[in-house]
Amino acid sequence: MPANTSLPLLGGLTAAQFLADYWQKRPLLIRGALPDFVTPLSPDELAGLACEEGVEARLVEEHGRDAPWRVTHGPFDEATFARLPERDWSLLVQAVDHYVPAVNALLEAFHFLPRWRLDDVMVSYAPPGGSVGPHVDQYDVFLLQGSGSRHWQLGGLVADDAPIIAGIDLRILERFEVQPGEDWLLEPGDMLYLPPGIAHHGVSRSEDCMTFSVGFRALSADESITSFADYLGEQLPESRRYADPDLAAPLHPGEIDDAALARIRALILDTLDDPAQLTQWFGRAMTQPKYPDHPVASEHATEVDTLVAELQDGAVLERTPGSRFAYRGDGETRATLFVDGDGIDCPLDLARWLAGDEPLDARLLERPEAARLLAPLLDRGSLSWPSQDGDDDDYREDEA
Fold this sequence. Notes:
Layout: H1 15-21, E1 28-30, H2 43-50, E2 57-61, E3 70-73, H3 78-82, E4 89-93, H4 101-104, E5 118-126, E6 141-147, E7 150-157, E8 183-186, E9 191-194, E10 198-204, E11 209-216, H5 221-235, H6 258-272, H7 275-286, H8 304-312, E12 318-319, E13 325-330, E14 334-339, E15 342-347, H9 348-354, H10 370-380, E16 383-384
Antiparallel strand pairs: 1-9, 2-3, 2-4, 4-5, 5-11, 6-9, 6-11, 7-8, 7-10, 12-16, 13-14, 14-15
C-alpha cells in the first residue's frame, strides 16, 4: 500500500502522515473510519465464544460482591450470564480474529502498518455503564466502535509508577483526570487511535455496545532480553565460556577486579553483537503464536502432488487466522520466511508473496520451491484450505 495514498480509515490522512504525526505520539479520533461497518458477530455469539475451552475471556463487573470491582475468567456458562445485572459490566474476549474469519478480515484494513506488529482483535460487549475503569495500555491500539455507543475520555501520559487500585486483577488507575477536549462519544464506524501510555476510560452509553480493539505486539525490554538470551543459549557451544589467559596475580584473592569485569563484558557483548542471530531471533519472536495451541497441525501429511493438483484445479489456500508471516531478505534472491515462530529458508519472491496480501493460488506454483514449502506449512496448520461447508461460524451461540 503506497505511503502517500489517502486512507478513509485514517480520516483521509496518508499512511506517511499518520506515522509521522500520530503513531506512538498522540491520539487520533477518526469519525466514520468505517462508515458502513456492520458488526460481524452478535453479543450472543461473543458470549458463546467466551464459553469455549481455550478461549481467553474475562468478565469485569464494576460492583463486585466484596469490592467495587470484580474480574472472573472464562470459560463461562449460561448461568454466569443469567445472573448478571442490566448494567455496569463488560465481557472481554481476546483474539476473536483467530476464531471468526469476518473479524480476521478486519485486519486487512490495517496493512499500512507492518503485519508482524499486529497482535490480535479483542472484542468487548457491555450494557449501559459497562467499563473496565480508567487504565493504561503499553501498546498501540485502534478502538473501533462496532455497535451501540461508547463514551471515551483520555487522561494523558501516565508514569510507570502511577498508583493503581489494589486487590483486583485489573490495573485500574487510582486517579484519572480528563484532558481538556479529549472527551468523545463514539458511534458505529468511529475509531480512536491511542499510542502506548495514554490513560483512557471508556463507558458504554447504550444497549449492546460492542467495541473492536485492534492491538499491536510490543515486546518489553524484559521479554526481549530474556527471549534473545534463551535463543542464543540454544545456539552456543559449551566451550564458549569465561576465560582469563591474561590473568595476573590478584592483590587480594577475594577481589573481583576491573580486568575480570572487562572479560565477562566482552564475552557477553561479543555474543550479542551478531546481526544474523538477532534477525533469526527477532523474526521468530515477532511471529510467535499468541497461544500455545495454535496453529493446529493436520492429522495427515500432505502429498505434494495432491497439493499441486488442487491448486491447478482452482483451489486457493488461506493464511490461517491467527498465523503470523514475515520475512527478512538475505541477499538478492534468498530470504528467511518467518512463520509462527519458525524460520524457513526460501526464495525472496516466494517469501514476499506468502507474507503479503496476494491470494495463495496456482500462480504460486510458478515460483521455484513453492510446492515443497507449501505442503509443510499446510501440515503444520499455518496454511489451510477454505471451509468446505461454507460455515465460518465455529463459535457457539449462547444467551448473553
